[in-house]
Amino acid sequence: MSKPTRHDADILLRLAELSVLYNTPAVATFVLSDDFPTDFARFRQKFPRGKRSDEENLLHRFLAYFELAGTLYRNGLISGDLMFDWMDVTGAWDRVKGYALGLRQEMEDPSQSENFEYAAEQARSWKPKRP
Question: pTM for the whole thing?
């Protein structure tokens, strides 16, 4: 991976601002709780399709936020070294993977959360570089 630049830092700061706008701390609280069903079928039992709950709306923002970050990374617009050092993409993906893949199938849209998934796969093999 390339050495992060000031431009990368600017994009990372914008992602941090978007994190607040997307209310990712509230989503993370839900996603990490025992109330979040990681299996899509169980999620749909608890939160039926067509009746979007507040929790599902938050979850969609979470997916959109990480999809945006993943898209920037996949297209070389932010350094993976910088992004993966700040953001637990793999941990986030692992927690919502069941929902994201189920939603992809339900929507019949193979591109749903694909960049989030891609970034998480890349982050698995990333090793921090320390001076």
Answer: 0.91
What does the pLDDT look like over 88-99, one tens digit per residue? 999 999 999 999
**83 confidence band (pLDDT: 50, 70, 90):** very high
Distance CA 126, CA 131 (A): 16
Residue 1 forms part of a structural domain: no
Q: Classify residue 41: in a domain, yes or no.
A: yes
Q: What is the largest CA-CA distance in the chain?
A: 51
Q: Who contacts 82 (Cβ-Cβ below 8 Å, separation ≥6)? A: 4, 8, 9, 12
Domain total of the chain: 1
